[in-house]
Amino acid sequence: MTEHRKLSPGKLIIASHNQGKVREIRALLAPFGIEPVSAGELDLPVPEETGTTFAENALLKARASAEAANCVALSDDSGLCVTALNGAPGVYTADWAEADIYEGGPGRDWYMAMGKVEGKLAELGPEADRSAYFVCTLALAWPDGHSEVFEGAVHGNLVWPPRGTRGFGYDPVFQPIGFKQTFAEFDPQQKHDMSHRADAFDKLVKACFD
Ligand code: IMP
Fold first, then answer.
1. pLDDT tens, 147-168?
2. 14, 17, 21: which to mutate for ligand 1, most atoms within 8 A of CB?
3. What is the CA radius of gyration of the chain?
């Protein structure tokens, strides 16, 4: 059996500048006596995501924050993988939302990104396979260089048009298997109980908390 390093109560950096992710990770950490501070609050540098896998990018982000703040850091690299698009956008999920002009300047336009996915499915015709899954890879990095990685997933289908105003990113088009609502129509706690982030987090909890 693999030995995992345990997480002690105390300060932990959430190595993300994405407020949706920070909000969900805070809620998941709440019961564990951890004091989360986000990389955004500490103004920590954002490393370039040059990896070609979720794990590589998660480790890049966790290590950058752990080194800069000399504190254990938790990062999340996640994305949407669409079966009919051979797993795209995958590690490039956030890039598909990059817009030159969004709310007055460069930014991420999630409605444009969801439209891009839908456009590519439409090119494949009405019979296109609409199944997709979200992946979440959590990486923990300690200032001494030790790291741990956990991966979770949730499977579902893509709907169009987008529905719901909760959640973030691609939630309005993702309908998990067995449900009639999209993640953006879910109560936040319901999403926390079953998301790809919750799945990865369960594995982290089993490995790193006593
Ligand atoms: P990255 O991990 O910073 O490369 O960004 C991954 C992107 O995937 C996010 O910015 C979101 O758009 C999308 N994503 C990840 N998790 C979720 C989720 O729980 N709901 C909706 N979109 C998500």
1. 999 999 999 999 999 999 998 9
2. 21
3. 17
Q: Tell me if residue 171 is catalytic.
A: no
Summarize pLDDT for 28-67 with one digit per residue, the tens.
Answer: 898 898 999 999 999 998 899 999 999 999 999 999 999 9
The structure's pTM equals: 0.92
Out of 24, 54, 168, 175, mutate this one to test ligand 1's pocket (max ligand atoms within 8 Å of CB): namely 168
Pocket of ligand 1 (CB under 6 A): 18, 49, 77-80, 93-94, 134, 167-171, 183, 195, 197
With b for 16 or more beta-carbon neighbours within 10 A and e for fewer, the 162-180 pattern comes to: bbbebbebbbbbbbbeeee
